[in-house]
TrEMBL record:
Keywords: DNA-binding, Repressor, Transcription, Transcription regulation. The gene is merR1_1. It comes from Enhygromyxa salina. Residues 1-14 have a biased composition (Polar residues). This is Mercuric resistance operon regulatory protein. SUPFAM superfamilies: Putative DNA-binding domain.
């Protein structure tokens, strides 16, 4: 009996079965990896998230872009605030504007610089010099002063004590105010500075109140020159008294002037002073004039007035 042997390629040998098993296991592992990747992927079919290194880089970049959106270079700040860049540098060197933040070689300014520039402008409009502005912002930054309270005090200190603003009058309005006067009376007022002639029909009156005083004194026989001299004496001494009084009250602010050391309390004290101050001056001046005139009578100085009048009549 003859035995036929199959070709090796067709023989179901054991090695072929091992190769098949390894291939199947490899296929299963690949399917498992694909399943894990599918489970980690977003459910809406979006692409997988980038590696952590890339995410951190993109986050830093986004943060930098966001910061730049709220920042200004000096030229951008100048355009945004309508303040020249040279002035901004001056404010910074003077210490009234905080230093910018540098990123690389470029300086960036933020919203706080815009607010500070607005504050500086407001203070300059109120007449404050740069040194006073620096002291103010330093106190605010140290928490020693609240801006709104200071503005209230500043308003009290800057408000007019009397309604006597300058006026420009026409010739008709000036004649109505003066009433019937001797020829040349307006020229006398102009020499005294009580009226300033601008044109033939425009007259500046620096103090309408003092003009009314001058006309009343003229009605009483007091010439414009004498009234002006008396006004100069009062202004000289009252200016000195006002300066001394302001310094005295400043030194006692919060310690006898104002119910407390708060800015609001001191503001209230100045508000009340504006009301009673002029009345106090009137009372004190009246009392002093009484004493001086009474002394003139007692010492016989009043008789010299009559003697001078007689000498003038003889001339």
């Amino acid at each position: 009996m003859t035995t036929h042997t199959l070709p090796a390629s067709m023989s179901p040998t054991k090695p072929a079965s091992k190769k098949s098993s390894r291939a199947q296991r490899r296929a299963k592992r690949q399917l498992a990896k694909r399943g894990e990747a599918a489970a980690e992927a977003p459910s809406d079919g979006a692409e997988a998230e980038p590696e952590p290194e890339n995410t951190a880089a993109e986050t830093a970049e986004a943060t930098e872009v966001g910061a730049e959106a709220e920042s200004y270079t000096i030229d951008e700040l100048a355009a945004h605030t309508a303040i020249p860049s040279r002035t901004i540098r001056f404010y910074q060197s003077s210490g009234v504007l905080p230093k910018p933040t540098k990123r690389g070689r470029i300086a960036y300014y933020g919203p706080e610089h815009v607010e500070r520039l607005e504050l500086i402008g407001k203070m300059q409009d109120r007449g404050l010099r740069m040194r006073a502005i620096k002291e103010l912002v330093d106190q605010i930054e140290r928490g020693e002063l609240v801006l709104q309270e200071w503005l209230g005090l500043e308003e009290q200190l800057s408000s007019a004590w009397i309604d006597d603003a300058p006026k420009v009058l026409t010739r008709t309005e000036l004649d109505e105010l003066l009433g019937e006067r001797r020829p040349g009376f307006i020229a006398e007022l102009a020499r005294a500075g009580t009226v300033e002639i601008r044109t033939d029909d425009a007259y500046l009156v620096p103090s309408p109140g003092l003009l009314r005083v001058a006309t009343r004194l003229d009605d009483a026989g007091v010439s414009v020159d004498v009234a002006t001299g008396a006004s100069a004496i009062l202004q000289k001494h009252l200016a000195k008294a006002a300066k001394e009084l302001a310094g005295f009250l400043r030194d006692h602010a919060g310690e006898g002037f104002g119910q407390s050391d708060s800015v609001a309390s001191i503001s209230d004290a100045f508000r009340e002073l504006r009301t009673i101050g002029p009345e106090s001056v009137r009372l004190i001046f009246a009392r002093e004039m009484e004493q001086v005139l009474r002394k003139m009578v007692e010492t016989g100085e009043a008789t010299r007035i009559e003697t001078k009048k007689k000498r003038r009549r003889k001339r």
